[in-house]
Amino acid sequence: MADPKCVIVRDPANGREAELPVREGTLGLAVIEVRDLPSRLGYFTYDPGFVSTASCRSAITYIDGDKGVLLYRGYPIEQLAEHSSFLETAYLLIHGELPRPVELTRFTEDIRREALIHETLRKFFEGFHHDAHPMAMMVGVVGSLSAFYHGELDIDDPAQRYISAVRLLAKMPTIAAACYRHSVGLPFVYPRADLDYSENFLNMMFSVPSLQYGEDAQWYLDPVATRTLDLLFLLHADHEQNASTSTVRLASSTGANPYACIAAGIAALWGPAHGGANEAVLEMLQEIGRPERIPRFIARAKDRNDPFRLMGFGHRVYKNYDPRAQIIRKACHAVLERFSPADPLFELAMRLEEIALNDAYFIERRLYPNVDFYSGIIYRALNIPVNMFTVMFAIARTAGWVAHWLELKADPGQRIGRPRQLYVGAPRRDYLPPAAR
Question: What percentage of the chain exceeds 70 in pLDDT?
Protein backbone atom coordinates (compact mmCIF):
# COMPACT_ATOMS: atom_id res chain seq x y z
CA MET A 1 0.00 0.00 0.00
CA ALA A 2 1.34 3.43 -0.93
CA ASP A 3 2.49 5.88 1.71
CA PRO A 4 -0.33 8.44 2.25
CA LYS A 5 2.34 11.10 1.83
CA CYS A 6 3.08 9.86 -1.68
CA VAL A 7 1.32 9.87 -5.03
CA ILE A 8 1.58 7.01 -7.49
CA VAL A 9 2.43 7.78 -11.09
CA ARG A 10 1.85 4.96 -13.58
CA ASP A 11 3.11 4.68 -17.14
CA PRO A 12 0.33 2.93 -19.13
CA ALA A 13 2.78 2.08 -21.91
CA ASN A 14 4.72 -0.42 -19.81
CA GLY A 15 2.86 -0.59 -16.48
CA ARG A 16 5.79 0.78 -14.47
CA GLU A 17 4.87 2.77 -11.39
CA ALA A 18 6.66 5.26 -9.17
CA GLU A 19 5.80 6.54 -5.71
CA LEU A 20 6.60 10.22 -5.51
CA PRO A 21 6.80 11.91 -2.10
CA VAL A 22 4.41 14.76 -1.24
CA ARG A 23 6.03 17.63 0.62
CA GLU A 24 3.88 20.00 2.67
CA GLY A 25 4.81 23.53 3.63
CA THR A 26 3.45 25.74 6.39
CA LEU A 27 0.88 27.30 4.05
CA GLY A 28 -0.26 26.76 0.49
CA LEU A 29 -0.49 23.78 -1.81
CA ALA A 30 1.63 20.71 -1.16
CA VAL A 31 4.19 19.77 -3.80
CA ILE A 32 5.06 16.48 -5.46
CA GLU A 33 8.79 15.82 -5.39
CA VAL A 34 9.75 14.71 -8.89
CA ARG A 35 13.53 14.60 -8.66
CA ASP A 36 13.53 10.75 -8.91
CA LEU A 37 11.03 10.62 -11.78
CA PRO A 38 13.67 10.24 -14.56
CA SER A 39 15.37 7.29 -12.86
CA ARG A 40 12.09 5.60 -11.97
CA LEU A 41 10.02 6.12 -15.09
CA GLY A 42 12.39 7.66 -17.61
CA TYR A 43 10.59 11.03 -17.88
CA PHE A 44 11.32 14.66 -17.12
CA THR A 45 8.52 17.11 -16.32
CA TYR A 46 7.60 19.92 -18.73
CA ASP A 47 6.44 23.20 -17.19
CA PRO A 48 7.11 26.30 -19.33
CA GLY A 49 7.67 29.32 -17.11
CA PHE A 50 7.85 27.01 -14.06
CA VAL A 51 4.31 28.13 -13.20
CA SER A 52 3.50 24.82 -11.45
CA THR A 53 6.95 23.90 -10.19
CA ALA A 54 8.48 24.73 -6.81
CA SER A 55 12.16 25.41 -7.49
CA CYS A 56 13.23 25.73 -3.86
CA ARG A 57 12.27 25.69 -0.20
CA SER A 58 11.89 29.18 1.23
CA ALA A 59 10.68 30.72 4.48
CA ILE A 60 10.69 34.35 3.34
CA THR A 61 7.45 35.26 1.52
CA TYR A 62 4.09 33.58 1.05
CA ILE A 63 1.44 34.54 -1.53
CA ASP A 64 -2.11 33.24 -1.90
CA GLY A 65 -3.19 34.79 -5.17
CA ASP A 66 -6.80 33.58 -4.96
CA LYS A 67 -7.36 35.20 -1.58
CA GLY A 68 -5.17 38.26 -2.14
CA VAL A 69 -2.76 37.38 0.68
CA LEU A 70 0.87 38.51 0.91
CA LEU A 71 2.96 37.62 3.97
CA TYR A 72 6.53 38.65 4.74
CA ARG A 73 7.92 36.06 7.16
CA GLY A 74 4.34 35.38 8.23
CA TYR A 75 3.35 39.02 8.79
CA PRO A 76 0.49 40.36 6.63
CA ILE A 77 1.61 43.11 4.28
CA GLU A 78 -1.25 45.28 5.55
CA GLN A 79 0.13 45.27 9.10
CA LEU A 80 3.68 45.99 7.99
CA ALA A 81 2.51 48.82 5.73
CA GLU A 82 0.64 50.43 8.61
CA HIS A 83 3.18 49.99 11.38
CA SER A 84 6.60 49.23 9.93
CA SER A 85 9.21 50.98 7.78
CA PHE A 86 11.22 49.78 4.80
CA LEU A 87 14.41 49.21 6.79
CA GLU A 88 12.59 47.39 9.59
CA THR A 89 10.91 45.21 6.94
CA ALA A 90 14.26 44.61 5.24
CA TYR A 91 15.66 43.45 8.58
CA LEU A 92 12.66 41.12 8.93
CA LEU A 93 13.22 39.62 5.47
CA ILE A 94 16.92 39.08 6.13
CA HIS A 95 16.78 37.81 9.72
CA GLY A 96 13.35 36.20 9.87
CA GLU A 97 12.16 38.18 12.90
CA LEU A 98 11.25 41.78 13.58
CA PRO A 99 14.12 43.65 15.25
CA ARG A 100 14.18 44.87 18.81
CA PRO A 101 14.84 48.63 19.05
CA VAL A 102 18.56 48.17 19.68
CA GLU A 103 18.83 45.77 16.73
CA LEU A 104 17.04 48.17 14.38
CA THR A 105 19.30 51.02 15.51
CA ARG A 106 22.39 48.92 14.83
CA PHE A 107 21.04 47.79 11.44
CA THR A 108 20.22 51.39 10.47
CA GLU A 109 23.72 52.50 11.46
CA ASP A 110 25.22 49.68 9.38
CA ILE A 111 23.20 50.88 6.38
CA ARG A 112 24.31 54.49 6.86
CA ARG A 113 27.95 53.49 7.23
CA GLU A 114 27.91 51.49 3.99
CA ALA A 115 25.93 54.03 1.91
CA LEU A 116 28.99 55.72 0.43
CA ILE A 117 30.48 54.33 -2.77
CA HIS A 118 34.18 54.16 -3.56
CA GLU A 119 35.45 57.31 -5.27
CA THR A 120 36.93 55.17 -8.04
CA LEU A 121 33.48 53.68 -8.65
CA ARG A 122 32.15 57.19 -9.25
CA LYS A 123 34.48 57.45 -12.24
CA PHE A 124 32.83 54.35 -13.67
CA PHE A 125 29.84 56.51 -14.58
CA GLU A 126 31.99 58.58 -16.93
CA GLY A 127 32.08 55.58 -19.28
CA PHE A 128 28.34 55.84 -19.89
CA HIS A 129 26.87 58.21 -22.43
CA HIS A 130 24.67 60.84 -20.81
CA ASP A 131 21.49 59.35 -22.29
CA ALA A 132 22.26 55.74 -21.33
CA HIS A 133 19.25 54.05 -19.76
CA PRO A 134 19.56 54.13 -15.95
CA MET A 135 18.91 50.39 -15.75
CA ALA A 136 21.85 49.76 -18.07
CA MET A 137 24.01 51.78 -15.70
CA MET A 138 22.59 49.93 -12.69
CA VAL A 139 23.47 46.54 -14.17
CA GLY A 140 27.01 47.66 -14.96
CA VAL A 141 27.78 49.56 -11.76
CA VAL A 142 26.29 47.02 -9.35
CA GLY A 143 28.08 44.23 -11.19
CA SER A 144 31.33 46.19 -10.92
CA LEU A 145 31.08 46.06 -7.13
CA SER A 146 32.38 42.51 -7.56
CA ALA A 147 35.73 44.00 -8.53
CA PHE A 148 35.81 46.18 -5.40
CA TYR A 149 34.85 43.56 -2.83
CA HIS A 150 35.73 40.21 -4.39
CA GLY A 151 39.09 39.55 -2.73
CA GLU A 152 37.88 40.16 0.80
CA LEU A 153 34.71 38.08 0.46
CA ASP A 154 34.45 34.53 1.76
CA ILE A 155 30.90 33.47 0.90
CA ASP A 156 31.28 30.45 3.19
CA ASP A 157 31.48 32.84 6.15
CA PRO A 158 27.98 33.88 7.35
CA ALA A 159 29.33 37.12 8.84
CA GLN A 160 30.87 38.17 5.53
CA ARG A 161 27.72 37.21 3.66
CA TYR A 162 25.73 39.48 5.96
CA ILE A 163 28.14 42.38 5.34
CA SER A 164 27.66 41.90 1.59
CA ALA A 165 23.87 41.96 2.00
CA VAL A 166 23.99 45.17 4.05
CA ARG A 167 26.42 46.73 1.61
CA LEU A 168 24.11 46.06 -1.34
CA LEU A 169 21.05 47.37 0.46
CA ALA A 170 22.94 50.50 1.54
CA LYS A 171 24.62 51.36 -1.75
CA MET A 172 21.68 50.76 -4.08
CA PRO A 173 20.02 54.18 -3.49
CA THR A 174 23.39 55.92 -3.84
CA ILE A 175 24.09 54.18 -7.15
CA ALA A 176 20.54 54.78 -8.39
CA ALA A 177 20.68 58.49 -7.60
CA ALA A 178 24.09 58.71 -9.27
CA CYS A 179 22.60 57.15 -12.44
CA TYR A 180 20.00 59.91 -12.54
CA ARG A 181 22.46 62.72 -11.78
CA HIS A 182 24.77 61.50 -14.53
CA SER A 183 21.91 61.42 -17.04
CA VAL A 184 20.98 65.06 -16.37
CA GLY A 185 24.53 66.38 -15.99
CA LEU A 186 24.34 67.25 -12.30
CA PRO A 187 27.12 66.62 -9.75
CA PHE A 188 26.75 63.59 -7.51
CA VAL A 189 25.38 64.14 -4.01
CA TYR A 190 26.81 62.22 -1.07
CA PRO A 191 24.51 60.40 1.36
CA ARG A 192 23.79 62.15 4.63
CA ALA A 193 23.90 60.49 8.04
CA ASP A 194 21.08 62.66 9.40
CA LEU A 195 18.49 61.44 6.88
CA ASP A 196 16.62 58.16 6.82
CA TYR A 197 16.70 55.73 3.89
CA SER A 198 14.00 57.31 1.71
CA GLU A 199 14.93 60.89 2.63
CA ASN A 200 18.52 60.17 1.71
CA PHE A 201 17.58 58.85 -1.69
CA LEU A 202 15.36 61.81 -2.56
CA ASN A 203 18.04 64.22 -1.37
CA MET A 204 20.69 62.51 -3.51
CA MET A 205 18.30 62.64 -6.47
CA PHE A 206 17.06 66.21 -6.31
CA SER A 207 19.30 68.36 -4.13
CA VAL A 208 20.37 71.33 -6.28
CA PRO A 209 21.70 74.44 -4.48
CA SER A 210 19.92 77.55 -5.67
CA LEU A 211 21.94 80.61 -6.69
CA GLN A 212 19.17 82.81 -5.39
CA TYR A 213 18.55 81.33 -1.97
CA GLY A 214 21.80 79.49 -1.26
CA GLU A 215 20.01 76.16 -1.03
CA ASP A 216 17.09 74.45 -2.74
CA ALA A 217 13.58 74.45 -1.34
CA GLN A 218 13.82 70.73 -0.41
CA TRP A 219 10.25 69.94 -1.46
CA TYR A 220 11.38 66.33 -1.76
CA LEU A 221 11.84 66.06 2.01
CA ASP A 222 8.15 66.76 2.53
CA PRO A 223 6.84 64.02 4.91
CA VAL A 224 4.14 63.02 2.43
CA ALA A 225 6.80 62.36 -0.22
CA THR A 226 9.24 60.51 2.02
CA ARG A 227 6.62 58.40 3.80
CA THR A 228 4.98 57.41 0.52
CA LEU A 229 8.30 56.45 -1.07
CA ASP A 230 9.21 54.41 2.01
CA LEU A 231 5.84 52.67 1.74
CA LEU A 232 6.42 51.87 -1.94
CA PHE A 233 9.84 50.41 -1.10
CA LEU A 234 8.23 48.26 1.62
CA LEU A 235 5.48 46.99 -0.69
CA HIS A 236 8.00 46.07 -3.40
CA ALA A 237 10.60 44.55 -1.05
CA ASP A 238 9.87 40.94 -1.99
CA HIS A 239 7.34 38.92 -3.95
CA GLU A 240 8.31 35.27 -3.66
CA GLN A 241 9.88 33.41 -6.63
CA ASN A 242 9.33 35.99 -9.38
CA ALA A 243 11.56 36.17 -12.46
CA SER A 244 14.25 38.44 -11.00
CA THR A 245 14.39 36.67 -7.62
CA SER A 246 14.61 33.31 -9.35
CA THR A 247 17.41 34.73 -11.49
CA VAL A 248 19.30 35.82 -8.36
CA ARG A 249 18.87 32.39 -6.82
CA LEU A 250 19.91 30.60 -10.02
CA ALA A 251 23.05 32.72 -10.35
CA SER A 252 23.76 32.29 -6.64
CA SER A 253 23.57 28.52 -6.93
CA THR A 254 26.76 28.60 -8.99
CA GLY A 255 28.69 30.27 -6.18
CA ALA A 256 28.97 33.54 -8.10
CA ASN A 257 29.92 36.78 -6.38
CA PRO A 258 26.79 38.26 -4.68
CA TYR A 259 27.17 41.59 -6.48
CA ALA A 260 27.14 39.79 -9.82
CA CYS A 261 24.06 37.83 -8.70
CA ILE A 262 22.16 41.01 -7.81
CA ALA A 263 23.24 42.58 -11.11
CA ALA A 264 21.69 39.57 -12.84
CA GLY A 265 18.48 40.22 -10.90
CA ILE A 266 18.50 43.85 -12.02
CA ALA A 267 18.86 42.74 -15.64
CA ALA A 268 15.87 40.39 -15.28
CA LEU A 269 13.81 43.11 -13.58
CA TRP A 270 14.42 45.47 -16.51
CA GLY A 271 11.98 43.58 -18.74
CA PRO A 272 8.67 45.35 -19.43
CA ALA A 273 6.74 42.23 -18.40
CA HIS A 274 8.33 42.42 -14.94
CA GLY A 275 9.72 45.63 -13.47
CA GLY A 276 8.74 47.88 -16.34
CA ALA A 277 4.99 47.51 -15.88
CA ASN A 278 4.49 50.84 -14.10
CA GLU A 279 6.31 52.60 -16.93
CA ALA A 280 3.86 50.95 -19.35
CA VAL A 281 0.96 52.38 -17.30
CA LEU A 282 2.14 55.95 -17.94
CA GLU A 283 2.61 55.21 -21.64
CA MET A 284 -0.94 53.83 -21.79
CA LEU A 285 -2.38 56.91 -20.08
CA GLN A 286 -0.55 59.15 -22.52
CA GLU A 287 -1.97 57.10 -25.40
CA ILE A 288 -5.53 57.49 -24.05
CA GLY A 289 -4.91 61.20 -23.69
CA ARG A 290 -8.26 62.55 -22.45
CA PRO A 291 -11.05 61.26 -20.15
CA GLU A 292 -13.63 61.32 -22.94
CA ARG A 293 -11.51 58.78 -24.87
CA ILE A 294 -11.62 56.22 -22.03
CA PRO A 295 -14.77 54.36 -23.22
CA ARG A 296 -13.15 53.77 -26.60
CA PHE A 297 -10.09 52.19 -24.98
CA ILE A 298 -12.21 50.21 -22.53
CA ALA A 299 -14.01 48.73 -25.54
CA ARG A 300 -10.68 47.92 -27.17
CA ALA A 301 -9.51 46.17 -24.00
CA LYS A 302 -12.59 43.94 -24.11
CA ASP A 303 -12.02 43.03 -27.77
CA ARG A 304 -10.01 39.81 -27.99
CA ASN A 305 -8.90 40.69 -31.51
CA ASP A 306 -7.46 44.03 -30.46
CA PRO A 307 -3.87 43.94 -29.15
CA PHE A 308 -4.53 46.84 -26.77
CA ARG A 309 -4.47 45.95 -23.08
CA LEU A 310 -5.18 48.04 -20.01
CA MET A 311 -1.79 48.14 -18.29
CA GLY A 312 -1.81 48.10 -14.50
CA PHE A 313 -4.97 45.98 -14.23
CA GLY A 314 -4.98 42.37 -13.11
CA HIS A 315 -1.95 40.37 -11.98
CA ARG A 316 -0.20 37.13 -12.94
CA VAL A 317 -0.42 35.85 -9.37
CA TYR A 318 -3.35 37.65 -7.77
CA LYS A 319 -6.77 36.48 -8.93
CA ASN A 320 -8.26 38.76 -6.33
CA TYR A 321 -7.38 42.37 -5.51
CA ASP A 322 -3.64 42.91 -5.19
CA PRO A 323 -3.29 43.63 -1.44
CA ARG A 324 -0.48 46.08 -2.15
CA ALA A 325 -2.73 48.05 -4.48
CA GLN A 326 -5.35 48.50 -1.77
CA ILE A 327 -2.67 49.94 0.51
CA ILE A 328 -1.03 52.25 -2.00
CA ARG A 329 -4.29 53.59 -3.46
CA LYS A 330 -4.89 55.81 -0.43
CA ALA A 331 -1.29 57.06 -0.48
CA CYS A 332 -1.59 57.75 -4.21
CA HIS A 333 -4.52 60.10 -3.71
CA ALA A 334 -2.70 61.88 -0.86
CA VAL A 335 0.40 62.43 -3.03
CA LEU A 336 -1.65 63.74 -5.95
CA GLU A 337 -3.52 66.14 -3.69
CA ARG A 338 -0.24 67.38 -2.23
CA PHE A 339 1.96 67.69 -5.31
CA SER A 340 -0.03 67.50 -8.53
CA PRO A 341 -3.71 68.32 -8.04
CA ALA A 342 -4.04 69.90 -11.50
CA ASP A 343 -2.13 67.39 -13.63
CA PRO A 344 -4.54 66.24 -16.39
CA LEU A 345 -2.83 62.84 -16.60
CA PHE A 346 -3.68 62.15 -12.96
CA GLU A 347 -7.28 63.21 -13.53
CA LEU A 348 -7.36 60.76 -16.43
CA ALA A 349 -5.88 57.97 -14.28
CA MET A 350 -8.40 58.47 -11.50
CA ARG A 351 -11.28 58.51 -13.98
CA LEU A 352 -10.00 55.29 -15.60
CA GLU A 353 -9.73 53.69 -12.16
CA GLU A 354 -13.32 54.69 -11.34
CA ILE A 355 -14.73 53.33 -14.60
CA ALA A 356 -12.83 50.03 -14.43
CA LEU A 357 -13.76 49.40 -10.80
CA ASN A 358 -17.44 49.72 -11.71
CA ASP A 359 -17.41 47.85 -15.03
CA ALA A 360 -18.96 44.37 -14.89
CA TYR A 361 -16.43 43.02 -17.42
CA PHE A 362 -13.48 43.86 -15.18
CA ILE A 363 -15.26 42.91 -11.96
CA GLU A 364 -16.20 39.45 -13.27
CA ARG A 365 -12.63 38.82 -14.42
CA ARG A 366 -11.13 40.35 -11.27
CA LEU A 367 -9.11 42.81 -13.32
CA TYR A 368 -8.55 45.27 -10.52
CA PRO A 369 -5.91 48.02 -10.53
CA ASN A 370 -2.64 46.56 -9.29
CA VAL A 371 0.34 48.10 -7.51
CA ASP A 372 1.95 49.09 -10.83
CA PHE A 373 -1.03 51.27 -11.74
CA TYR A 374 -0.63 53.40 -8.62
CA SER A 375 3.16 53.32 -8.24
CA GLY A 376 3.76 54.81 -11.68
CA ILE A 377 1.36 57.65 -10.91
CA ILE A 378 3.06 58.31 -7.56
CA TYR A 379 6.54 58.34 -9.09
CA ARG A 380 5.41 60.86 -11.68
CA ALA A 381 3.94 63.06 -8.94
CA LEU A 382 7.29 62.92 -7.13
CA ASN A 383 9.10 64.03 -10.31
CA ILE A 384 10.79 60.65 -10.77
CA PRO A 385 11.57 60.34 -14.51
CA VAL A 386 9.81 57.50 -16.29
CA ASN A 387 13.08 55.78 -17.18
CA MET A 388 13.88 55.64 -13.44
CA PHE A 389 10.71 53.77 -12.50
CA THR A 390 12.29 50.32 -12.78
CA VAL A 391 15.34 51.59 -10.90
CA MET A 392 13.03 52.44 -7.99
CA PHE A 393 11.75 48.88 -8.12
CA ALA A 394 15.34 47.58 -8.03
CA ILE A 395 16.16 49.61 -4.90
CA ALA A 396 13.20 48.10 -3.07
CA ARG A 397 13.59 44.54 -4.36
CA THR A 398 17.23 44.43 -3.25
CA ALA A 399 15.92 43.67 0.24
CA GLY A 400 14.25 40.52 -1.04
CA TRP A 401 17.11 39.58 -3.34
CA VAL A 402 19.71 39.63 -0.56
CA ALA A 403 17.36 37.76 1.78
CA HIS A 404 16.97 34.98 -0.82
CA TRP A 405 20.71 34.97 -1.49
CA LEU A 406 21.43 34.55 2.22
CA GLU A 407 18.78 31.84 2.53
CA LEU A 408 20.17 29.88 -0.42
CA LYS A 409 23.78 30.11 0.77
CA ALA A 410 22.78 28.86 4.24
CA ASP A 411 20.90 25.84 2.85
CA PRO A 412 23.15 22.74 3.08
CA GLY A 413 20.98 20.98 0.50
CA GLN A 414 21.26 23.65 -2.19
CA ARG A 415 22.50 22.49 -5.59
CA ILE A 416 23.47 24.30 -8.74
CA GLY A 417 20.43 25.11 -10.84
CA ARG A 418 20.16 22.96 -13.94
CA PRO A 419 16.70 23.00 -15.62
CA ARG A 420 15.93 20.37 -18.23
CA GLN A 421 14.44 20.89 -21.67
CA LEU A 422 12.14 19.28 -24.19
CA TYR A 423 14.43 19.09 -27.22
CA VAL A 424 12.60 19.75 -30.52
CA GLY A 425 15.59 20.27 -32.83
CA ALA A 426 16.97 18.04 -35.57
CA PRO A 427 17.79 14.42 -34.71
CA ARG A 428 21.36 13.19 -35.04
CA ARG A 429 22.74 13.71 -38.56
CA ASP A 430 26.12 13.50 -40.24
CA TYR A 431 28.17 16.39 -41.52
CA LEU A 432 28.28 16.78 -45.31
CA PRO A 433 31.10 18.64 -47.05
CA PRO A 434 30.05 21.74 -49.02
CA ALA A 435 30.24 19.99 -52.40
CA ALA A 436 27.78 17.31 -51.30
CA ARG A 437 25.06 19.62 -49.91
Answer: 97
